[in-house]
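Raw record, unedited: histidine kinase
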Amino acid sequence: MRAALARAAVLAGAFTAGAVAARAATIPHLRRLTADLQRSRERILASREEERRRLRRDLHDGLGPTLASLAMSLDAARLTLAREPQRADPLLADVRDRLASAVGEIRDLAHGLRPPALDDLGLVAAIQSVAEGCCERVDVRFDGEHLELPAAVEVAAYRIVQEALTNVRLHAPASTATVRLARDVELHLMVADTGPGLPDSLRNGGQPRPRRGMAAMKEWAAEVGGNCEIMSRNGGGTVVTAHLPLAAATSAAGYHRPSMGKRRG
């Protein structure tokens, strides 16, 4: 009886050890799978942002001017047909108004796809534009070379900084703020202010539900495979830091262009 129990115990131990070994063997595979899924997610997001940039360019620089030119042509036709204003003038004026409205809607659509300031000014100048009047003083600086940035990372960085500065404008308008950007294999950004800091309910890992914008900053960073942290610092003030990887977004970009300096004269 004792021998049977001993054999059963040995078998049970062997089974447990085998199960543990099998589970341990699957961990590297699961990690590789998780990494592959994350890279795939980043490539999809980067491709989407590149497509949005191309779509904005087509709408804003192609279809928009075409419709505007058509509106001007209709104005000329309206003047030409002035001999019969009762029949032509009201109709053409209405068409002209609707075309003007369509042009405005197209521009609004383009703005929603990608902030136009990024293409018009570049990331640093666009941030400087957002920072104007935010508080008593804002210092914006990019440490390092102003090299190309993938569209997805550029948009995420702009939106995170914009949201952080909006919070400064709303909750610490009498403070000073600092915006720092630097890049290596990632784009690093920091927005710090000298205001009162986070509410007590959000300190020490509290959930940012009372302020939706704080959760959005974390989501924008996560979409490109990065992370974002918001915390109060000793002595007062709030610090927003984000680290946005460049590799996956760069591989998905179909072309490159200067992104940090001014684009247009």
